[in-house]
Amino acid sequence: MNGHAIPILQGLLGLAALAALAVVATNWPSRLDLRITLRYLRSRRSSRLLSLITVIAVGGVTVGVMALVVVLGVMNGLQADLRDKILVANPHLRVLTYGEGLRLDDWRKVMGEVRRSPGVEAAAPFVLSQGLISAGHDYAEGVVVYGVEPDTGHEAVTSFARHFTKGDLTFKATRADVEGGIALGTRLASKLSAFPRDVVTLVAPAGAKFNPSVGAYVPKFHRYQVTGIFDTGMYEYDNSYVALDRRVAQRFAGLDTAVTGIEVRLADPWQAQPFGAALESRLGYPYRALDWQSQNASLFSALKLEKLAMALVVFLICVVAAFNVVGTLTMAVRDKTREIGILLAMGVKQTAIRRIFLTQGILVGLTGTTLGVVLGLIVGTMVNRGHWIPIDPSIYFIDHLPVHTQPLDVLLVIVASLVVATFAPLYPSVQAARLDPVTAIRYE
After folding, report:
1. 336: how many CB neighbours lie within 10 A of its CB?
2. What is the Cα–Cα distance from 142 to 236, expressed in whole angstroms?
């Protein structure tokens, strides 16, 4: 639904903008019209102060535009931050197989084929499994075991290695009584009270052997030394992920020489979906490609729909501000009725009167739009840099409210606000132009 709604709304906004441009072009004010408009915007008692009603109208437009800029920035920030957090440990593309077991035996041949494909910057095997981890006490936690190649610098498929607060992704254990090194998420390490050089026990789902003495299958226990703590900023990774060397993870998962799949980093992440489809057709069955967008399609679709809904709701503030402009001009027409009659009696045309009040409304909208955009950009920048609004990372994946303002969104807000400001004063300006000069001069 949202995939079709956004282009339709953009098309309607474009048509409205063309209509507004036509209105402005056919009612372009002269220098005399502008001078009279500026006088009408001022208070009667002092030519240096704007009237209170004009300030209220400008303030309404300012608040509406500022709110719209900030809200769109928040929705863009959520999308961008979630995408960046997801891609910390998730590659642009994963090559897997169909069927049970999720194991890729001929992964070296497949990886060679993938690396020869244009647009591929890096590719590496990975292992994904599950286990139960403890740190020498009664408390245990279910975790996702992620087997990766040790950090290879620019050849790394993901940015996972750049998010370590302690240690690194080399898995270099200093003890001889362990099977290797392990990296823990910062929240998981805090719950386990496990720190670098500590030893943790990981229970594997595979490799359990039947013990006749107890009459049950006994799981296999693996001991690893903590060699790193990572903090990705995404709750799911930091709370339930552990990383092992790929070869160690293969033994842990009972895959022998097989792996779960191939991770791929592309030059253009947004081309992951068509690249995956082309790779699937080239590799054939039983291989399949899973891109990062398809993996999180429901999440990003929900965010797009929320962005559209929030923009429409906040846009109503701009519509309310347009009613303020209508009220301002209606009161201005009543306040300046005698002056309008005098102008008409002096030979000023009705089209000029209409242009005067139309220009007054457009100036109010233009001033409010400018102030709203500037304030919206300032507020958005301050909220984003200062992390003013913390949120629960266990629900929203991130720990603060991000604001990323995009130029296209700001342009759309400006166009929408000016379109509303152009159409709002049409009725009051037409009513002012229709005044009878004699009746207007005698108006008390």
Report:
1. 23
2. 12
Query: What does the pLDDT average to over 257-276?
Result: 89
E strand or H helix at 209, and its extent? Answer: strand 199-211
pLDDT of residue 46: 46
Q: Decide if pLDDT at 16 tops 70.
A: no
- The three-point CA angle 146-281-159 to 5° equals 30
265-280 b/e (C-beta count within 10 Å ≥ 16 → b): bbeebeebbebbeebe
Plot region of 407 (φ>0 → left; ψ -120 to 50 → alpha; else → beta):
alpha
Torsion of CA 426, 427, 433, 434, to 10 degrees: 150
Are the C-beta atoms of residues 114 and 95 closer than 8 Å to each other? yes
pLDDT for 380 equals 85
Region label for 137, one of left (φ > 0), alpha (ψ between -120 and 50) or beta (otherwise): beta
CA–CA separation, 106 and 128 (whole Å): 17
Cβ contacts of 258 within 8 Å, gap of 6 or more? 103, 104, 105, 107, 250
Q: DSSP label at 150?
A: P
The answer on pLDDT for 10 being more than 60 is: no
Which of 230, 241, 249 lies closest to 147, judged by CA? Answer: 249
Q: pTM of whole model > 0.90?
A: no
User: Which residue has tokens 């409010």?
Assistant: 368
Other Cβ atoms within 10 Å of 178 Cβ, number: 18
User: What CA–CA distance (Å, rounded) separates 175 from 58?
Assistant: 70
Separation of alpha carbons 59 and 375, rounded Å: 12
